[in-house]
Amino acid sequence: MKKDFTINFQGDSTLVIKLGENIDYETNKIVHNLFNNLERDICFQDYIYDIYPTFNNIVIDYDNLLTDFETLKADITKKIYIYLKNYQSDVLENQITEIPVSYGGLNGPDLKKMSNELRISEEEIIEIHSSTIYRIFMIGFMPGFPYLGGLDKRISFPRLSTPRIAVPEGSVGIAGMQTGIYPFDSPGGWNIIGRTEKKLFNTMSNPPALLPSGSNLKFIRI
Amino acid sequence: MIKFLNSGILSSFQDKGRLRKKKFGVSKSGCLDPFSFELANKLLGNYHNEPCIETLGGVSCVFLEESIVSITGPLEIFSVNDNYIYQTNSSIKINSGDRLDIPLSNKGNIFYISVSGGFKINKIMDSYSYHQPSTITNDLKISNGDLIKLNRNRNLGNDLFISDNTFFENKIFNDKKIKIIYNEDINIKEFKKKFEKKEFIISDQISRQGIRLKGEPIDFFKDQNEISSEVSAGTVQLPPDGLPIILLNDSQTTGGYKKIGSIPRFQLSKICQSPISSKVKFSEISLSESISENRKINLEFNNIKIQSYTNRVLEINGRLISVLISQNNSIISIADNQQFEIIEDRFE
């Protein structure tokens, strides 16, 4: 596998491995593949505070009393060349988690408005939304929240002009070209089209987040 | 057990933070002022990462059993049962039934309370740190009326300790300069010059997630269209409104605003202890300078002088005066319930 990357610092305790500039499937797949290798190999070193993937980067927070940027950069560079040389696609890439969703009505208070304004029937919006396989690009924003890629352009819809004070846990929403699930009750400006009973985050589970970053998700209509 | 009559402002348990959970969207959390946090445990001979109570003050609590307690943070006085006056950065003996009051401070923001042997609480995802923006760690938040148990294996020896405050005065409370390590893509002379000329003010929009600065906006990066990406404690964002945000321990794990750089690790305590309305002016520091400064400051912290003391309370003209006396019988400080004066600061 050939892939260009750069390693930069962000402050004195974070190292960023940049594998691309944009949000795209290919880059994000490589991010997760290299992340899984790197995490396995270095995450229990005492100087590693954290290691995590984003859309296009792998990020390492480290203790600068125990190591420094240049040493870490040299070590990581060597490791990444080895991973790229022995590159094999990941099982996670094809894993799909199914999320049962009750669409519309009280569970999806914005579905009707979207249907009217988009001139697409509620049925059809549900059909489009639940027939796509979404990639989980990363988990962020709040504990367990998946950044999903793959929303069909036809059902893209702008965020509410005034956010709601409370959106219930499990709400499934659309904002611009993004779709997502609220892991907790929280304020929010997404258009809510349905709701799932699945718990996205549980501190007692291992791992605590239901959805693994780098895998896929499909909404199932119930 | 301790009963919280008044839980104070933003009081919660904190340790050094929750590691290796960002891939689940969980930020590090942890104590905002690691130096004061660590001193609280050091004064008691506790494990260095023993969870402490972090608070902005306004706390009033009653101890239902005896304990040795340490209070650290802004250089203030606090009282036990309204008549024993102590100063922060010391350990004190508390008897069963005693009431401890911690004030609000205008010299700094954050206090730590630790007890000998530690609090008896449960870990959540490998840490005792409360995460303010979510509900996942609500058991680690302190509310009015809460009863908190203490661990049993505690040392109730008679020795009480007080720390020399020179380090805290010089490095945290009186140092006015804020350093920034610019990101590599912000190597733009014109921007740095413009940015470092501005004086910002710490607004009242502060939380464990971050500090919003106010002042005259900086108009430089137009058409922001950033992909959400990594942020951590100390990251400085410049949103389209041109007013910087300094992210702190409970920030989101990823953010979408333009990032210009980071506050060095050795100044995170300082920025968190800066009171609302204080002035902030940034100046550049290189990565290597920042790391060597961090090592120097940590060494200095590890060598802080700590000495044992006794507290005598005198009644003079109906006024209670508290005198702290060191091992060799010199007077360390004199205080009434309004103010204290340090007499002996030569810790030899």
Describe this structure in words.
The complex is a heterodimer of chains A (222) and B (348). Chain A is built from 4 helices and 13 strands. Chain A has 222 residues and is of the alpha+beta class. In chain A, the strands form 3 sheets. In chain A, strands 7-6-13-5-12-9-10 form a 7-stranded mixed β-sheet, with helices on one face. In chain A, strands 1-2-4-3 form a 4-stranded antiparallel β-sheet. In chain A, β3 (48-53) and β4 form a beta hairpin. Helix content of chain B is 14%, strand content 34%. Chain B has an 8-stranded mixed β-sheet with strand order 22-15-16-19-18-21-14-23, covered by helices on one side. A 7-stranded antiparallel β-sheet of chain B has the order 7-6-9-4-1-12-11, with no helix packed on it. The two termini of chain B are 37 Å apart. The A-B interface holds A 8-14, 16, 22-23, 39, 43, 48-57, 59, 61, 64-65, 68-69, 138-145, 147, 183-185, 201, 203, 207-209, 213 and B 17, 19-26, 28, 124-125, 131, 133-137, 181, 183-185, 227-230, 232, 234-235, 252-254, 259, 261-265, 287, 290-291, 294-295, 298.
Distance between the termini of chain B: 37 Å
Biggest sheet strand order of chain A reads 7-6-13-5-12-9-10
Q: What is the helical fraction of chain A, as a range of percent?
A: 10-25%
Shape call of chain B: globular
Q: What is the tally of beta strands of chain A? A: 13
Determine the strand fraction of chain A and express it as a percent band: 25-35%
Largest contact between chains: A-B, 46 and 44 residues
Largest sheet of chain A: 7 strands, mixed
Summarize model confidence as the mean pLDDT of chain B: 92
**Uncertain stretches of 5 or more adjacent residues of chain B:** none
Poorly predicted parts of chain A:
none
Helix/strand class of chain B:
mainly beta
What's the gyration radius of chain A in Å?
A: 19 Å
Oligomer: heterodimer
Binned strand content of chain B = 25-35%
Which strand order does the major sheet of chain B show? 22-15-16-19-18-21-14-23
Shape of chain A: elongated
Structural class by SSE content of chain A: alpha+beta
SS element count, helices of chain A: 4
Main pleated sheet of chain B: 8 strands, mixed
Number of helices of chain B: 5
